[in-house]
Amino acid sequence: MTTTGAATPTTDPVRGERERRRVSARVRILLWLLLVMAVALASVAATTRSILLRDTDQRINGLLAQEAGEFANFEEQGFDPETGRPFTDPGRLLRVFLERQYADLDEELVGLVGEVGSRPTQIIQQREIPVGRPLHEDADARRRIYASPDSTGVLDRPEGEIRWAKVTVARYGGEPAAAFVVAFHPGREQARADEVFRVLLAISGVALLMTTGIAWVVAGRILKPVRLVRTTAAQLTEQDLTRRIPVHGRDDVAALAETFNAMLDRLERAFATQRRFVDDAGHELRTPITIVRGHLELMGGAEENAAEREETVRLVTDELDRMSRIVEDLLLLAKAERPDFVTPEPVQLAELTADVYVKARTLGDREWVLDGVADREAHLDPQRITQAMVQLAQNAVQHTTTGQRVRMGSRADGPRVELYVADSGPGVQPQDAEVIFERFRRGTARRGVRGTGAGLGLSIVRAIAEGHGGRVDLRTTEGGGATFVLTLD
């Protein structure tokens, strides 16, 4: 058994599970914003650390090259302050040079004297070096540097990395007898860069926390109209389409609210039209149904003669035909909403006008006049235009009497095409001009006019005109009557 009435919400476990798993737009926006900011801030921190380490490397390399260059220059051009002559003893050369140098805090200047491969004697500056194990305390490291054929290098140790540069001092016979080594311990410089990196990460974390709070509030305010749209849509029913969303501002969200309100306006008008349409259709169909039922009930009487039975059958058939026409017209108007309602094609307007005129002449004994034709080609649906023009001609027949004039024709004005039917009947009252094109509406002048229409003819004409992107207009006729004009742009 089928019941009708207001729909009641049903419990859908699957839908309920989806609702529970759904992440709100506010949370998604916040998560994406935090992800982008976290990646950006981490990239900034990592890039800053990389730049600091690169600058540290460049400074260390420059310092090593400077110290090595100064020693090489001193070896070549220097004089022993005791003799006033060039140095002949490598040990004396290293001592004098080291006495005159002021090294950085993390820098070591060491002189090594002895045969390569042996354990060299070292000459150092007497000062504190703030590292775990300076080079002058690491005999193995000194031996490896002294034996290395390279002039620069990096020595990796568990106690910390050493960057070094070496200048070999040869005996005057040509064999290496000593070496000047400048060593730099980059651990503190690198730790400083790491400290900056950690500080930036901490600041980024605080910034993310602040951004989370601010973004949560801002996203809530921005999405408030969207939530209102959702809430309003959930509260809409067929019986209540009056709710609207308040519009604030001039941004995209406000435009969304305005668009939603406009959609609700169209829905409200559509539902109102639908209800009025159903009421009017029910009213129009109720009358012939009542007539048919009454006459069928009378047919059951025993005293009914053949003439009365024949008259009853005729009346019933007429009413059934009228109901059939109403249903066909309703189906046609429903089809008018479809995009394939009209199928335009190139048509010779003069030929079409003449064909419509010939068909209209059979509708009634009137003075039919082909007023004029437009000799040009038009892009339209000939069957639908013929249907509209015949309907206008039928309307003219119903509002005129035998012998009265009905004019038909077509004309062109640039790209615009007009087809018209003009009668010499009583015309249309001013108060009726706005309503006669609506469904199931008749003008006051129609009352008392013989006919079986349901008030759908002019609605069909308007639907055909609008299907072509045009319109149908009502104009006054000189000398009395009404002129209906199909205007197609």
Summarize the SSE layout with pairings.
Layout: H1 13-21, H2 25-77, H3 90-99, E1 107-113, E2 121-124, H4 139-147, E3 152-155, E4 162-170, E5 176-184, H5 187-235, H6 252-299, H7 306-335, E6 345-348, H8 349-360, E7 367-372, E8 377-380, H9 382-398, E9 405-413, E10 416-423, H10 457-467, E11 471-476, E12 482-488
Helix pairs in contact: 2-5, 5-6, 6-7, 8-9, 9-10
Give a written overview of the molecule.
- This protein has 489 residues and is an alpha+beta fold.
- The chain has helices at 13-21, 25-77, 90-99, 139-147, 187-235, 252-299, 306-335, 349-360, 382-398, 457-467, and strands at 107-113, 121-124, 152-155, 162-170, 176-184, 345-348, 367-372, 377-380, 405-413, 416-423, 471-476, 482-488.
- A hairpin with a 6-residue loop joins strand 3 (152-155) and strand 4 (162-170).
Write a concise synopsis of the structure shown:
With about 500 residues, the protein is an alpha+beta fold. It is about 50% helix and about 15% strand.
Uncertain residue ranges: 1-11, 446-452
Count the strands?
12
Query: Mean pLDDT, rounded to whole units?
Result: 81
User: Major sheet: order of its strands?
Assistant: 2-1-5-4-3
Radius of gyration (CA) equals 51 Å
Termini Cα gap: 52 Å
Helical proportion, percent range: 40-55%
Strand content: 15-25%
Task: Name some characteristics of this structure.
489 residues, alpha+beta, five-stranded antiparallel β-sheet, five-stranded mixed β-sheet, 10 helices, 12 strands, disordered N terminus
